[in-house]
Amino acid sequence: MQLMRLFQPDNFSESEIKYKKAPNDSHFVAVLNHYFREYTLRGVFQLDRPEVNSENYKAILDVKGRLRTVLIRKYKSLSNLEQVHFYLTLIENLAKNGVPVSRIIKNERGESAMEAGGDIVALFEFIDGQYFPGTEESLASAAEAIAKMHASFGVLSQNTLSQIAQFSSKTKAYYNIIEAYSVSDFVTIREIIEKKANKNDSDRVVLEKMPLFITTVTEIKNFESSWLLLPRKLIHSDLHPHNVLFKNGLVAAILDFDAVRISQQARDVAFALYRFGRQCLIGTDEEQAKFLGPRLRELFIEKYMQIKKISSEELRLMPLLVKDEFIKKLLLVLKGTYLEDNRIWAKDLPKFLVAIEEIDYFWPIQ
């Protein structure tokens, strides 16, 4: 493995949304028959990128002589119809509060989701947009949309929040697998690599970065008690550049609420700020990144705070919260690779290895 240099393109850098022809259109007819009476299916196209939690398809229909495009979503991470209905109701409530989300299409029975052929599926109005285009205008729009979402989370009932906490605690997300960590976790992996007789390029890169990871874990642990005092609220938990759609540079919809959980909202803000902000810095050199990183941070925070306030303590702890997220992601991959012979996330190791260094460009050490 070759180490990805700082601010190089990654799997989220492409803003064009691409589809490929689905192999069997007739498979979708049984679903569409529950939504439309007089229609002709012109074609079904699958989203052309790896998907973990769902499969998404663009279906083009002729409905009584008028072309209509819908999005068909098959759920993979959620296998319970009642749970899918719950999350779709959450999306509907967000829409009522002015949060940009995809509009759900109900079937003939007024249901937001249904079972078909062993799958749980839902239909949405298709948004002909693009992924995050990496401009300051779109970064500002993302900050505003996320602030609206967080503000809307604040009016949800306690019962809804309790159900989300219950559902999210049972997922196989990285934050449930790596609930806690310490320096000893990284020392153990370092020792395993050091004992290998034949080290590959990936081994050598991990060893090279290990002092940084150990220092970062120590830094996080020194401040962990502080962020545990921050209020715990609902967060999206997966605000990356392919989970927000844009039209003409502005947010058209925030997507994929299947990973919502209870944590510090400053964690959501910092995570999004870094994940979107790094795309604005693709191809920049070190000096440019040093100048632009803090500027992008201030722009994001300013636009967010025009809608929802952030305390000074939340601002202070943001870089540690986002580092905590990436240390967990990194440790998940390292444990899988060196302790469990599980390389399912190994392809993401290069970007996780540089994330800690990139984060410091947005929150430079004073």
Kindly report the average pLDDT value.
94
The secondary structure category is: alpha+beta
- Low-pLDDT segments: none
CATH topology of the largest domain: Aminoglycoside 3'-phosphotransferase, Chain: A, domain 2
The H-and-E topology, N to C, reads as: EHEEEHEEEHHHHHEEEEHHHH
CATH homologous superfamily placement of the largest domain: Aminoglycoside phosphotransferase (APH), C-terminal lobe
What proportion strand? Answer: 15-25%
Whole-angstrom Rg? 22 Å
Short characterization:
By secondary structure, the chain is of the alpha+beta class. It is built from eleven helices and eleven strands.
Written description of the protein model:
By secondary structure, this protein is α+β, with helices and mostly antiparallel strands. It folds into two domains: 19-125, Phosphorylase Kinase, domain 1, CATH 3.30.200.20; 136-362, Alpha-Beta Complex (Aminoglycoside 3'-phosphotransferase, Chain: A, domain 2). Helix content is 47%, strand content 16%. It has helices at 26-32, 81-96, 136-153, 158-168, 174-177, 183-195, 201-227, 265-280, 286-305, 312-338, 349-362, and strands at 19-21, 39-47, 54-63, 66-75, 104-105, 114-116, 119-125, 233-235, 244-247, 250-254, 261-263. The strands form three sheets. Strands 1, 2, 3, 4, 5, 6 and 7 form a seven-stranded antiparallel beta sheet that branches. Strands 8-11 form a two-stranded antiparallel sheet. Helix 3 runs antiparallel to helix 8, helix 8 packs across helix 9 and helix 8 crosses helix 10. The longest helix has 27 residues, at 201-227. The radius of gyration is 22 Å and the shape is globular. The mean pLDDT is 94.
